[in-house]
Amino acid sequence: MGGGEMSDLDKVMSAQSILIVGAHPDDPDAFAAGSVARWTAAGAQVRYVVVTSGDKGVPNDEINDPSRFISMREEEQRRSAALLGADEVVFLRHRDGEVMDSLELRGQIVREIRRAKADLIVTHDPLTRMLRQHPDHRAVGFATLAAAFPSCRLASFYPEQIAEGLEPHSVHMLLLGGGDPHDWNIHIDISETFERKIEALNLHESQATAFVGGVRQRMTQRARDMGAPAGLELAEAFTFAWLD
User: Fold this and answer.
1) How many domains does the chain have?
2) C-alpha to C-alpha distance for 244 and 203, rounded to whole angstroms
3) Most Cβ neighbours (<10 Å): which of 102, 104, 124, 169?
């Protein structure tokens, strides 16, 4: 790389409109909160799209009427996103554990891409070979990939959105989180924003027991493992791709 050309990492960190698409409340924070804090501090606009409201985790005594639990999880995500400086959280309210890569879901994600005019999308890696992977993560990852290319850039896809004034939009960059270590090619240093990440995840109080060993211990080990290949103390690692 010469002549002052920006690296892929520099281009990712200079993105101005970032759309993070997660399957459940707390997913965006688990794989990208440290990066979100860096992007918003640099003046970028960050929006979350959360496909479900995490309703399958409802306590047994509320299983017949999970509305209070759903409201709790959505509010936890709103508070967490606000702490990190994100501008908006959109809930699509699909059923937890029942998400499919459908034309309906793709269209909903296309709508948010076009509305945000995103130049960077962050979502789940649907191609990971880890077998212990929530099926909603895979479905959301595949649907987001299809929405990002080619659907959102062509007026022939979801023309009703065009009629509403949402113009076709080309996304240039993609980050996939939760994938296999040998596929990581972007490591974002979160040493200065790690505590913000912990604060954000701790706001998801209903999910405190979901982090084996506790939020801090689990996230510290993960951030160290992700930083090690790049010589960083603490990092979030992704698979990066150009969509041009």
Assistant:
1) 1
2) 37
3) 124
Indicate yes or no: pTM above 0.90: yes
8 Å CB contact between 69 and 206: yes
Measured CA distances, 105 to 8, 22, 91, 139, 151 (Å) = 29, 12, 12, 10, 12
pLDDT surpassing 60 at residue 2: no
Q: How does residue 1 score in pLDDT terms, banded at 50, 70 and 90?
A: very low
Is residue 80 scored above 50 in pLDDT?
A: yes
The CB density around residue 58, as the number of other CB atoms within 10 Å, is 20
Going across the sheet that includes 173-177, the strands are 88-94, 45-52, 17-22, 120-124, 173-177, 235-242, 186-189
* CATH number of the domain where residue 207 is located: 3.40.50.10320
Q: Do the bridges between strand 45-52 and strand 88-94 make them parallel or antiparallel, or are there none, so unpaired?
A: parallel
**124 domain residue, yes or no:** yes
Q: Residue 170 falls within a domain, yes or no?
A: yes
Range of the domain at 52: 8-242
Flag whether 3 is in a domain. Answer: no
Higher pLDDT, 78 or 213: 78
CB distance 133 to 95 below 8 Å: no
